[in-house]
Specification:
- The protein is about 45% helix and about 15% strand.
- The strands form 5 sheets. It has a 9-stranded mixed β-sheet, with helices on both faces. Strands 3-4-2-1-5-6-7 form a 7-stranded mixed β-sheet, sandwiched between helices.
- Helix 4 runs antiparallel to helix 5, helix 15 crosses helix 20 and helix 16 packs across helix 21.
Length: about 675
């Protein structure tokens, strides 16, 4: 037996009842397209005005009947019909003055309540003024003050009741299918979390059902927010939550430290509770729904790194109103540099890359986001000197961010000549043209793999560093600056996207070594430091970024599997496949003989490497380029090792070239 409101009890199966609830909810909230009903997402304004008009007429009748029974001798000058007409017209006028019909009834707020209160009070005051004005002119009253007071009160009460009922019915039907939603708690009790909670409770077509809040300060067992309980955060919180059938916890903004966030994530994963991230309401993407703004936490969110503080005034000084070239501009690092540079209003921003499709996609994005910036998108190879010369002849370039490079270690280990053409010759072309055409600053993006390199990719980047440092020593008018950092999370070919694909495919996740570690930095963070480093250099420096704590890749793989809702080694296996060609267990950011000095930015250090004479460097570059032209990979690597004595290959066929070095050491 199931009892429906306003209906007699009827016999109906549970399945039929569940279907009925879902169907009724769909019809009331969305309309029924199957029955060719109009798709109603909200009450139209004319309907709200019509309903409010009925409420006003009902309020007038109720007020008239109440005043009629009062022991007051009053002989009005107007009939009841005339009084009703005047009252309704005045009240309607103030509905339009305060736009009481403008809001969505189902999402009524205190602002809407204030509007109807002001409309009711203002109408009563206006009617009182009309009545006393008429009394002053004709010595007769139109309305009694008690009548006007009762009318304003009843009108406000009925209009408020109408909105509360509609809102309650809407919330009732939006919650009919909460069994299909994830029951989540909001971490913290403050304005930001409460705002997110309100958004969750009033939005439909979402995957979340707010179950309560978690307080870090004290217990609020007798207090509820948005009708939801508040739990005290403690070591046994997760055990206490088991009866409440909690599916997830939402962390809003930066309410907790990264260390505390990691601890909470580890605890939740042990109890099978999913973790979600949500920005504060003012940072929400308006084009997305609630579930579009509340997303599963990513491994990038768990980096134990402090936020970067930039000196925007210095960055603006050398970027604003300048013509700027970004090479490799369609890549993961280059494209983010372009986005950040665009915010400083350059006179012109030239984006150069040889990858056609990514460059086209970036153009569409940037022209829509930064329509006030003069962009030029150049499809070119940095190894093509004639193409670059034409570009420098055409534009008076002031600043260059050189991010174009081949970077995949195993691939470059098998194709050393290509690394020479792009990483070395391409850098040499750009550096020489910068000196020739009077470029103010040349900021090169390098890598930690250039320090004591064990692979061709790192050696090619180190050779590029050596060249620009030698060129700077020749008293070049251009300020050459090198920035060096480690792995970037989410960049093309990095380990995080690779692991995500493997997990999505059901595993196994492959790790090259049980003890391999890496430094990590987010793409925006790395690019922010590149821009900041560009303000510091006097020429020839290598700036090294604070990469934080190194991360054990095996731990990274295990946590990513857990965050995806799987059990490592059980549902998703992890396999150790051995180090790849040229790969080493740990990365370094400084040469052994290098000295580091602090800068005014705590996350940027300055390294001074020994500068090689330009004539000697040129001779090596000529020999390396000649070997590359002949596609003699062994000779390419041999010449690189002569230029860079600390280059010792690991897990590579080129280890044979180091035998004499190893014997002598």
């Amino acid at each position: 037996m199931v009892a429906l409101p306003f209906f007699k009890p009827i016999n109906i199966s549970q399945m039929t009842w569940d279907y009925f609830k879902k169907r009724l909810s769909h019809v009331l909230l969305n309309g029924d397209n199957d029955l060719k009903f109009r798709n109603i997402s909200y009450l139209p304004r004319w309907a709200v005005v019509a309903i409010d008009s009925c409420i006003v007429m009902i309020s007038f009748l109720i007020s008239f009947l109440l005043v009629k029974n009062l022991s007051v001798s009053f002989y009005p000058s107007l009939t009841i019909f005339q009084q009703g007409l005047v009252v309704c017209l005045v009240q309607f006028s103030f509905f339009f003055v305060f736009s009481t019909y403008a809001g969505l009834i189902r999402h009524s707020t205190t602002v809407d309540i204030l509007k109807i209160a002001l409309a009711a009070i203002s109408a009563a005051v206006a009617l009182m003024m009309i009545s006393y004005g008429y009394h002053f002119l004709f010595d007769k009253k139109l309305f009694l003050v008690p009548f006007l007071a009762i009318f304003a009160t009843v009108t406000f009460g009925l209009m408020l009741l109408f909105r509360v009922v509609v809102k309650s019915i809407y919330q009732l039907f939006t919650n009919l299918n909460t069994s299909e939603k994830k029951r989540v708690l909001l971490l913290g009790v403050n304005d930001d979390t409460i705002s997110v909670g309100e958004a969750m409770t009033i939005s439909r077509n979402q995957d979340f059902d707010l179950a309560g809040f978690v307080s870090f300060t004290k217990s609020h067992s007798k207090i509820k927010i948005l009708g939801k309980p508040i739990f005290k955060y403690s070591s046994d919180l997760y055990e206490n939550l088991q009866p409440y059938d909690i599916d997830g916890i939402v962390i809003v903004g930066d309410t907790i430290s990264n260390k505390q966030k990691n601890n909470i994530v580890d605890e939740c994963l042990n109890y099978g509770i999913q973790i979600y991230n949500a920005p504060v309401i003012k940072e929400w993407n308006d084009s997305e729904s609630v579930q579009g703004n509340i997303k599963e936490i990513q491994i990038e969110d768990l980096l134990e790194r402090n936020p970067i503080v930039l000196d925007d005034s210095l960055i603006n000084e050398y970027l604003n109103n300048r013509i700027i070239l970004v090479t490799g501009g369609a890549g993961s690092i280059g494209s983010e540099i372009v986005r950040q540079v665009s915010q400083f209003k350059p006179r012109k921003l030239i984006v150069l890359d040889q990858a056609e499709s990514p460059l086209h996609e970036l153009e569409l994005e940037l022209r829509s986001k930064f329509n006030d910036v003069d962009f030029e998108f150049v499809l070119a190879d940095v190894g093509n000197l004639k193409r670059l010369t034409n570009l420098f002849n055409k534009e008076k370039i002031s600043v260059i961010f050189h991010a174009a490079a081949y970077k995949h270690v195993p691939l470059i280990e098998n194709n050393p000549s290509e690394a020479v053409f792009v990483n070395i010759i391409g850098t040499m072309h750009l550096a020489n043209l910068s000196t020739q055409f009077g470029v103010d600053r040349f900021v090169m993006v390098s890598t930690d793999k250039a320090v004591n390199p064990t692979n061709v990719m790192g050696a090619s980047k180190r050779a590029a560093e050596i060249y620009v440092q030698a060129l700077q020593a020749e008293e070049s008018g251009t300020c050459f600056i090198t920035t060096r950092f480690g792995n970037v999370l989410g960049s093309n070919g990095s380990v995080i996207p690779h692991f995500k694909k493997q997990i999505a495919a059901g595993g196994p996740v492959t790790v090259t070594h049980q003890d391999i570690i890496r430094y990590f930095m987010t793409i925006p963070e790395a690019c922010q430091l590149v821009l900041q480093a560009g303000t510091m250099g006097q020429g020839g420096e290598v700036f090294v970024f604070d990469m934080g704590k190194p991360v054990r890749i095996m731990d990274l793989a295990e946590k990513m599997i857990k965050l995806s809702g799987f059990v490592p080694y059980n549902q998703i296996d992890i396999k150790v496949i051995g180090l790849r060609p040229g790969e080493k267990l740990f990365e370094e950011l400084l040469n052994d003989s290098a000295k580091t000095l602090p800068t005014h930015h705590k996350k940027i250090m300055r390294a001074k490497d020994q500068v090689i004479d330009m004539k000697e460097v040129n001779n090596f570059i000529i020999e390396i380029a000649a070997a590359a032209e002949q596609q003699n990979n062994t000779l390419v690597v041999q010449k690189l090792k002569e230029l860079i004595p600390e280059f010792l290959s690991q897990n590579s066929i080129y280890e044979e070239l180091d035998k004499d070095v190893k014997i002598s050491t």
